[in-house]
Amino acid sequence: MVTDAFRIRPAEPADAQAIADAYLRNREDLRPFEPHRGPEFGTAAGQAARLAEPGSARWVVTDGDLVIGRADLSGIVLGPFRSASLGYWIDAGHVGRGLARRAVREVCRAARDELGLHRVDASTLLDNHASQRVLAACGFERYGTAPEYLHINGRWRDHHLFQRILHDGPPARP
Q: What is the pTM of this model?
């Protein structure tokens, strides 16, 4: 159950340490789903650099002041494509409360209303049924399977591909 104590908001540079702490707390739970991360990834400096990456937009899921998850749009492309790729995770101690669905819905709303995107895509490991359920509940449809799509946890892994069309209007004018 999602309560008012939980918030999804745009990540800020001041969140870098709290994000690093959340990753370190969840490192073992995330390992089966993530690429290899260097040691700098789990530091405030590493997270500050990630927050500053161009072509991305990032959100944090919080419980009070504690960061308990992330949602990201990366590879944002404007022009006639107007698309981005979605990634997200929730702290292992907070799974099953509807937070992933809430975060994905908020990111899709912002992608449409604030960034003017037309499409958001996502991918999951073939056996990540929980994430597939989240995407389906948020209006994503599976459109294919990509062999050896991403290097995850030390090897190339097949992924199911999903997309959500956010609107049918023309691209926003610059």
A: 0.94
